[in-house]
Each structure stands twice: as structure tokens, then as C-alpha cells.
Amino acid sequence: MSLEQQINSAIKTAMLAKAEAELRALRAIKAAVLLAKTSEGAPAELSEADEMKLLQKLAKQRKDSLDIFRQQNREDLAKKEEEELAVIERYLPKQMEASEIRAVLTDIIATTGASSPADMGKVMGVATKQLAGKADGKVISALVKELLTK
Questions:
Q1: Mind listing the pLDDT tens digit for each residue in 36-58?
Q2: Which are the contacts of 144, defined by CB distance < 8 A and separation ≥ 6?
Q3: H-type alpha helices, 1-150
């Protein structure tokens, strides 16, 4: 079942359950999918990788907004973003733990021959491809920097 079909089904369920926060997030996902499909040069159907990138983008937007709202002491708005983020994350693959990421990065560093922070670009290029959808870019970057400065 495609992401769009899953979302449509979930929207119906959320409407029946009168789950306002869930409905808001699902509609945002559906809108993003429709925008991606109707943009110029876009294929009629999105690939699974494109769907994951789209969901990751939506999740990142919610996380960024959440941080801003917390800094401005707007807990009412932060709560809405948190609720939407929880719904979006249900459709994303489970994120790897820091220890798992560290193990993968150690292997990548060994295979690329990176030895100093100057080699961070080489490592990040391979790491972002290999860990796409499984780990946040900020976490990967921080761990690479930490491992290369040892």
C-alpha cells in the first residue's frame, strides 16, 4: 500500500475518531504528497525514497518549529507541533540509536581512510547515503566530528 493510500485511510479513521491533532498532521502529509506529485517534472507516482525524503522534510520542519516555539515560551504552539511530529514519525522508519550510528561511522571512517576533521566531507558523503532515513543529519555530523577529532 502506497503512502498516499495509507494516509487516506488514516484520515478517514482520524475523522471518525475526531482526533484533531492527528487529522491536522495527516492532512499536512497528504498536501505535501500532492504538491510533490503535481510539481513540474515530477513523476506521476512518488518512489518510496521520495516519500521518505518528504516525510523527513516534514518532520524536520516540525522539529525546527518546536525548538523555536520552546525558545519563545509558546507551549501552546509547541504542543501542536509535538503532536504532529508524533504522527509523522509513525510513517518514518525507526531511527537508529547513537551507538548503532557510531558503529556504522567507525566502519565508514576506516574504509574512507579519514583521519582528521579535514576529511569530514568524505565521511559525511558516504554516511548520509548509507544512513539515509535511519538517522538525523545533525546527529551524524556531530558524531563524525567527534570521531575524527579523537
A1: 888 877 777 888 888 888 998 99
A2: 105, 109, 120, 123, 124, 127
A3: 3-17, 20-38, 48-71, 75-89, 98-112, 120-130, 137-148
Give the H/E segment covering residue 76. helix 75-89
DSSP 8-state class, residue 109: H
Q: Which residues contact 26 (CB under 8 A, 6 or more apart)?
A: 7, 10, 11, 14, 87
Are 143 and 101 spatial neighbours (Cβ–Cβ below 8 Å)?
A: yes
Question: Backbone phi, then psi, for 46, in 5-degree steps?
Answer: -80, 140
What's the pTM value of the predicted model, to 2 decimals? 0.75
Rounded Cα–Cα distance for residues 58 and 90 (Å): 12
- In this prediction, residue 10 carries a pLDDT of 94
Q: Cβ–Cβ contacts within 10 Å for residue 1, how many?
A: 7
